[in-house]
Amino acid sequence: MKTPTSRPVVLCLSGHDPVGGAGLQADIEALLAQGCHAAPAVTALTVQDTVDVSDFRVLDRDWVLAQANAIIDDLQVQAVKLGMLGSVEMVDTVLEIMQRLPGVPLVCDPVLRAGGGGALGKDEVGYAMRERLFAASTIATPNLPEARILAELPNGSADECAEKLLPYIRHLLITGGHGDEQEVHNRLYSRDGSQHTFVCQRLPGNYHGSGCTLASTLAGRLALGQELVSAVELSLDYTWRTLRDAEQPGRGQYIPRRLPLDFC
């Protein structure tokens, strides 16, 4: 007997990665692993592999709006996850979409660089996210290089970037792992002054899609009604395990294994 789904629906506004390591495929797999239903709306198409990105094209805003409106008209969206936007116009498109979802948690993954270092949008996109989109977001999840771009502090520490960015957003998770430290420190900052640091063992290798995995997992945990700090902690733990079990299907970076081998 078929019954309506009891799984929370998460609207994913992200780009498409043809090798499946990042972008919407990462969102879908990570959300399935949390017991959620992913409703993906494509914002951009990319030409990339496990080594780096070589080109991308942002979709027309009317197409993105049509996708999102079709989802919202049909499904009860309980969280939104943002990935690659790629243009200032797409920032405004997301704000228009969020007007239809008052009170729904929004996890903003400010995707500005691919894992291989290639740009996925001009720095002005990051500034537009900071100035306009952060106010509508529950939390942003930049890695330290992205946080430095957003804060306009090229050599800033996580603490310095957070101080610059918290006037724009309620919660900020700055992830580590971009230096040569043996332990990775992921820091959650809140506008009320509270801070939490989550430490994990550094894993060898480079990974394609870790940021997408973390942000979509967090959106799923919030859709399930979990409190923010514990949702962050569980999302970081899950992401670390996907990296521990990662595979190398191509010539470049490892791809997180977000679903167990016996998943069906």
Automatic annotation (TrEMBL):
Keywords recorded for this protein, A-Z: Kinase, Transferase
Keyword GTP-binding in annotation: no
SUPFAM superfamilies assigned to the protein according to its UniProt record, in alphabetical order: Ribokinase-like (SSF53613)
E.C. no: 2.7.1.49
Domain called Pyridoxamine kinase/Phosphomethylpyrimidine kinase: residue spans: 17-253
Pfam families referenced in this protein's UniProt entry, alphabetically: Phos_pyr_kin
Source species, domain of life: Bacteria
A single GO molecular function term of this UniProt record: phosphomethylpyrimidine kinase activity
Record's protein name: hydroxymethylpyrimidine kinase
